[in-house]
Amino acid sequence: MVLSVSERTFTQEVLESPIPVLVNFEAPWCGLCKIIQPLLLQFKSQCGDQIKLVNVNADDNFKLATTYRLKSLPTLLLIENGIVRQRLESFRGREDLLQALEEIKICYINRPKTYKKSKIADLNCRSA
């Protein structure tokens, strides 16, 4: 099961998280959001406790949708130390999403777990 986050809990669960968080902005009416859910659950199981996965209902959390300038759903944001490191939107297909998730996994799974409050966002990872 994936944690659902709201505007009230976003800061604590995402921005202040000691580990990177993949935020899935979705909506109940979004067909593509339902289609990618199994892929995200598979990603979560592969990453274990090294990357957190949360869902945000964009319809119910309009301030967050506006803050992160959502153009389409689903939109995935990888946030580390309160900074958006990667943004995944407008998927061209299942394979495109799987490749982007695999690259995130490679960048984050086996790296040292030292977190500093850095404002530098260069992790040498591809941005989809």
Number of helices: 4
Overall, the morphology is globular
First-to-last CA distance: 26 Å
Helices and strands, in order, run as EHEHEHEEH
As residue ranges, the low-confidence spans are: 116-122
The class by helix and strand makeup works out as alpha/beta
Q: Specify the biggest β-sheet.
A: 5 strands, mixed
What is the oligomer described by this structure?
Answer: single chain
How would you write the strand order of the largest sheet? Answer: 1-3-2-4-5
Number of DSSP strands?
5
- The helix fraction, in percent, is 25-40%
CA radius of gyration: 14 Å
Average pLDDT: 88
Strand content: 15-25%
Structure, briefly:
The chain has helices spanning 10-15, 31-47, 62-67, 94-109; strands at 3-4, 21-26, 52-57, 75-80, 83-88. By secondary structure, it is α/β, with parallel strands linked by helices. A hairpin with a 2-residue loop joins β4 and β5.
Question: Would you kindly provide a written description of the structure presented here, covering whatever features stand out?
Answer:
- With 128 residues, this protein is of the alpha/beta class.
- α2 (31-47) links the parallel β2 (21-26) and β3 (52-57).
- The protein starts with a strand and ends in a 19-residue tail after the last helix.
- It contains four helices and five strands, in the order βαβαβαββα.
What tags apply to this protein structure?
4 helices; 128 residues; five-stranded mixed beta sheet; alpha/beta
